[in-house]
Input
Amino acid sequence: MNTYKAVIGDCISALSKAVIPTKSLDHYCRILMYHAVGTDVPGDIHQLYNMPLKTFRLQIEHLSRLQQSGLICVRDLNAGVETSSGLVITFDDGYRDNFTAAAPILTSYGLPFTIFVPPKLILDGDSRYLSIVTLKELALLPGVTIGGHGYSHRPLTNLDDGALANELRGSRAWLEDIIQKPVVTMSYPHGAVDERVRAFAADAGYEVAASSNFGALNGGCDSLWLPRTDIWAQDGLSRFKSKLAGSWDWMSHFDYGK
Ligand SMILES: [Zn+2]
Output
C-alpha cells in the first residue's frame, strides 16, 4: 500500500478508535486473511501480501498471549463459526512458505489454521506454491484445515454456469482425493463473489465460504459470504492490535483495490 494511504488509514483508524468503543474480543468472531510469508505474491501492486516472517511471528505470539490470557479462542473455520466468538487464521493461494515458515510457528503454539488451495497452482509445478507432497504433509498436521479456492484461481464471477460449476466442484473433488479428508470450506479467488457464485458454492457442497470483504462476523453473517480482516505485510504489532480491536472495520465500506 502506498505510504500516504497507509498514513491516512492509520489516522482514520485512530479517529475511529476515539469515537467508536473498541470491541471486546470475546464477543464476536474475526477471520484473519493472510497470503504468503516470505514469497512475492503475483499482482500484489501495493506489496501487501508477502508478510515478513519476523512480523508474522510477532503477530502470532501476540495471538497466543491473548489466548493464554483467555481473551480470545483461536478456532477452526467450520459451520457455526458465523455465530460464535473467536478468531480464525486463514491463508489464500497455497504458498509453499505456509508449510515451511508459517506452519512451524502456528503448530508450536497449538493454533489451528486454514489454507485455501487452488489445484492448478499446485499442478503447475511453480516452486512458490505447495507441491502435492507438501500439501499432503500440511493436511496431516494437527489443527490444519485445507479448503478450496476455485480450481484455477480465476475470478468466479466472470465465468459462465458450466465453468463456474467445474471450478467449484473440480477443486473440491481434487483436494478431497489428495488429502483424503472432506473439504467443505473455501474462499473466493480474488474476493469475487455475487449471489450466483454463492448459490453455486452451496450447490457444490461447501458449507463455509470466506470473501475478501473487510470486517468481522457479527453473529448474523451468511456462512457462505463471510467477511475477513485483511492483514498486510506492513502491519506492525500496533496496527495489528488495532485491526483486532475493530478500529479498521470502517474499511468494510470501501473497495481499496485488492
Ligand atoms: Zn487467491
